[in-house]
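Two proteins follow. First one:
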Amino acid sequence: MLDLKWIRANPELLDNALINRGQEPVAQKIIDLDQRYREVQTELQGLLSRRNDVAKQIGILKQKGESADPLLDESQEIKDKIPEVEIHERQMGEELQAILNYLPNIPADEVAVGRDETENIVVRTVGDLPIFDFKPKFHFEIGEQLGLMDFETAGKVSGARFVFLKGSLARLERALAAFMIDSHTKNYGYQEVSPPLLVRPHSVYGVGQLPKFKEDLFETTDERYLISTSEVSLTNMVQETMLDEADLPLRYTAFTPCFRSEAGSAGKDTRGMIRMHQFQKVELVSIAHPDKSWEEHERLTSAAEDILKALKLPYRVVLLCTGDMGAASRKTYDFEVWLPAEDTYREISSCSNTGDYQARRMNARFKPKDGGKPQFLHTLNGSGLAVGRTMVAILENYQQADGTVAIPEVLVPYMNGQKEITYGK
């Protein structure tokens, strides 16, 4: 959420940011509504104050045995008017809050203005693309031919966009997660967390997914939500808290299932594991001091990038433009991994700095060590990595002519010494 005081002082900056994100400018609407809202608040406060004054004066007159009829009439008028003004105040407050809830974050200065992913900036490309002496297969062809990836049975059990992984592929999924968690905890000091998968609406609101992206979520009958990413649970560990500056930064990592309805994705990536309703992901979350958040962003990005380097997968790092960036983000790096069968790069991780946008929604602050006024924290998040898409990349980049798949060297210890995935095992 954006600071209303900042909006009042910087309406042009807000409108420019919205235009750069492909949205309509609303700064003047917010300022006008805020002004009317504050006037109604002032009116209500005046009525409440006057009601108290009149009550006191009536009491004094009664003690003296004097008539208080004029004041009694005024008291009744005030009593009748207060509910009307209270309703008006509540309605205006809700209208203002609704607009603020939907406002995206302000992009950082270095983020390029662009309409969509075609105008993102490639920061660097790493690794040589594999050369095959055969036509590379898609990951789902490889998995099905190995007898270890079953979409048909999953479709009977759960519907489209689900899969059964068996044997070595199920083991590979577990191995990837363990390797990623070990890397993040040992090399970067992230604390491993096993978080709740069901969260309350205010937690989803806190990270900016509600109300705007409700259709992308799975809601339970008791008004909880299945997490679309463990960013939701991990970031909300600091909701409604007041930390000490000495506690910062906090760094968390988790391996969890994630659930997404994929609303609006009809016809996209209908085959395979690229776009699933349920998938596994290792998440990175940092809670940082405002002065350190950009440094922390680069550090978090490096933690995710090290996984791709260790797996020796070709990839590129992309700085997202304003039109492709998530609503809560000020700056986002995407990692895109090479998929030979598609002959293209596909997203495997997004690493974002949200500044104080989420912290304001969660009321997450810290006390400066110099005793100054409490400040909002900065929150950052990134996939470190999406396990399913990492498996997709391994299957396609490490596939062999006979249909088997070599296992990246760094994963062999996590696979109990297994170096190759073969049929049915």
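Second one, unrelated to the first:
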Amino acid sequence: MHLYVTPIRSRGFSLVELTVVLVIVSILLTMGVSALTVQLENAAHSSTQKKLEIIKDALTIYLGKYRRLPCPDLPAAAGNIAGQGDDNRTTPGNVTTTCSAIVGTVPYIELGLSRDAVLDGWENFFTYAVTTDALDTADWTRSTAFAVGKPGKLVALSRDPATSAVTTSLAAPENAVVVLVSHGPNGLGAWTVQGTQNVQPMAGTDEAENADLGANTTFIVREPATANIAVYGAFDDKVTFIKASELVATLVKDGSVRSAEGETRKLLSDTTEAVIGASISSATSPAAYPMPNDGWGTPMVYARTVAAQILTNTAAGTAFSITSLGANKLADGVPPGGDDIVSIVTVDSLKTIYARAGTLPAPVVPPP
């Protein structure tokens, strides 16, 4: 008896089946690459935001320590090593001189940060702008006239929608003291770790406004747009602006500095005592007296009401006053009508002070 076993033939894949498999694999790979791309992009945005917070904290600490902010680093400046991270001034190393420029990159060495801390999620340097001025009272980079309440000079404008010719100021009326810019995924206009500047955005676009180094004081804030919007172009910059009130909030909270109002009231008290002290020997308020700047960086105003010797004066009322014009820097009166802060010294109070000090009345000179 013979057994017959039918051979089992192997069956290969048809061309159609292979095609279907390849299409499925291609779709899965595409989905995987897309998901990976999204994850990487989200990570870059997250890293950028975290580093912006680190830089902001470093600027706050620096301000609390030195009563000034550092000048921008200028990678393209003559004699400067690209991306060195130093504080570039008109006289190198002399912090009493003005900044070489308003806009540059973050001076990370000056702030005590690593270079990596000032690179955004796309490995480009953040652009850094700071309020500078020839006048000490308006300059945030020199400590000679530090005042927590003085305004910034940098303007952050919102363009909404992206096609609108009209912009709205986001930091008015005090404006921003500092502006930080990440030039986003396209990196147009940003400085690189190689010490070179990327290709500039198209002239006249919003990204070109943000990439303008040197003396630029205006920056544009917009929703991201990959499409090339007519006139104002595509936009992927991330712009962070910091006002004076935000910059010093932590310092006020931990007691490193007083608030603008607190500093002003302290100055009013100290200056009032100094004026009284200068008048004790003669019992006459001085005709003029040098005034310090208030907490908003504005000189206080001294006004003498009684010019005669106080002890022989028969009138009552105000002898002299010292006034701070407040945050709005206008002589608009005390609250509720205005925000002036006034120290008033009366004739009667001065008579009491002079009596305790033993000050004598002016001698009576008989008529000729």
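SUMMARY FIELD: Helices lie at 15-66, 108-111, 206-210, 244-253, 260-279, 347-357. The chain has two domains: 38-253, 260-357.
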